[in-house]
Amino acid sequence: MSILNKRLLSIAAPLLFLALLLPSLASAQEAASCLTCHSSMKGKIKTAGGSLIDLNIDTDRFQASVHSALSCVDCHMKFSDNPHTTPGGAVPAPIAALAQKLAAKHAVDPVAAAACTKCHEATYNKVVGSVHGKNIFDKNQTDGAFCIDCHGSPHYIVKATDPNAKMGRKHQVETCGKCHGDKKLIEKYHLQENVMDSFNESFHGRKLHLGHTKVPVCASCHNAHDILTKTDSSSPVFGKNKIATCGKCHKGANEKFVPAISHQKPGPIPHYTEKALIALLLSTFAFIVIHVLLEAFSDIRDAIFRKGRDE
Ligand code: HEC
Ligand code: HEC
Ligand code: HEC
Ligand code: HEC
Ligand code: HEC
Ligand code: HEC
Ligand code: HEC
Question: Quick one: which atom of ligand 6 is closest to the CA of 229?
Fold first, then answer.
């Protein structure tokens, strides 16, 4: 290699290194500049739209989330820098259109809520087409579940395998239950009433609460993103589809097996059988206790009696 080439290389190499480093440096700086304020802000404020929001972002929890490599403006696309006066690059038309549809549900920053589609497009489309998405996009309501209703704060999402994940095994039932156990929502949409109780009392639910790691949670039977009404022939809990749904875990599941667990109230027969078994158990106990007491009593009586005779 000539001296000149060597020189060029010694100059080019650090430059190349710098060029590779710059984009990540820029994003880190952006997050840092937003966080200069947002990591130290305390308390809640009421926005112009009337929603009460917490302006504090916990830097450590954000860094520990699945999105730690993202900069704030990957989602908050309408901002570029502090303090909100400089508009960001133009929001792409498809995202702006989605944001418009989400304006009532995500009044703080609908663009940020629409931005998930940039990186999770297939998932996003499934949710939009689901019974939850239709509630927002077709019925113009705000009650259907959208990304952060299920996954929790967009700033602190962790992998589903993490024990803190809202959609992980540990917390999923309670997260779906926030709405599916809510009387007002059940009434408003004529939803099936006792899904939470029936799940929690089912064989699966009881095992789950004991820490079993293989029993199903809500999404195991209903899917996660493309959740449909049970009368929709594509729903995993529609008619014969249940054979495949239960069959994921119960090999050989058939039409006779699949009604074994549902959200329907158990019929009177199992109910009375359970009551009768409890009564039988209690009377057996009572019998044993009385028997022991009587025996003890007769021992004491015998002892006293004998003592008297010996004298
Ligand atoms: C100089 C301090 C400061 C910086 C830097 C800053 N913010 Fe804010 N931010 C605020 C204040 C104050 C509010 C609350 C009221 C308001 O909107 O003025 C706020 C509110 C918000 C809100 C709630 C919605 C809204 O529009 O009010 C979002 C979202 C937000 N900031 C995101 C960001 C992002 C993303 C960045 C970085 C690009 C950033 N902020 C940088 C001070 C700051
Ligand atoms: C993965 C996408 C995403 C990233 C990355 C992100 N945000 Fe957010 N942020 C959102 C969404 C979605 C909302 C809720 C908007 C709504 O409900 O109207 C939100 C809301 C907010 C709010 C309002 C208070 C709240 O929690 O609802 C603030 C302040 C905020 N973000 C600041 C930041 C800052 C600062 C960063 C960078 C450290 C950041 N965000 C990174 C998606 C994101
Ligand atoms: C700029 C791209 C980008 C945007 C925008 C984005 N994400 Fe992500 N998201 C990612 C990447 C990359 C991962 C995977 C991280 C990994 O596997 O470590 C991820 C992972 C996830 C996970 C997976 C957790 C798990 O169980 O593994 C969820 C849930 C998620 N994102 C939700 C959202 C939501 C909700 C929004 C919008 C508020 C959003 N994302 C916006 C890039 C993005
Ligand atoms: C009704 C609740 C619900 C809604 C709404 C929801 N998710 Fe999920 N999501 C789940 C469940 C359940 C899982 C699976 C967790 C597991 O792996 O066990 C999941 C997993 C994920 C994953 C990781 C695995 C995968 O399928 O890629 C990503 C990414 C994700 N969701 C993004 C989103 C985005 C983006 C939105 C909004 C468009 C969204 N989710 C809305 C329940 C939901
Ligand atoms: C933010 C509240 C909310 C959360 C969280 C939520 N849902 Fe829903 N869900 C609704 C509402 C509201 C409807 C009714 C929508 C409509 O009819 O317009 C619904 C409908 C449904 C339906 C169809 C019911 C019917 O009668 O058509 C199923 C199944 C369902 N949800 C399952 C789930 C599962 C499983 C989870 C958790 C992984 C979940 N939901 C989380 C609010 C929620
Ligand atoms: C073992 C599978 C299974 C599990 C786990 C499960 N479900 Fe269901 N779910 C069903 C079946 C099957 C139906 C159909 C009707 C029935 O059995 O009552 C149903 C119906 C529903 C409905 C009414 C649907 C409609 O269209 O009217 C809702 C809402 C619902 N489930 C929510 C949940 C929630 C929330 C959870 C978690 C707490 C859950 N389910 C757990 C199997 C399951
Ligand atoms: C995600 C996997 C999974 C799905 C899906 C699932 N189950 Fe189960 N089920 C289990 C596990 C694990 C057990 C507990 C086995 C044990 O501990 O003996 C169980 C136990 C049961 C039992 C009691 C014990 C037995 O084996 O007879 C019944 C009944 C049952 N499931 C019915 C159903 C029905 C009906 C469906 C569909 C509507 C279904 N299950 C869907 C995993 C699943």
Answer: 26
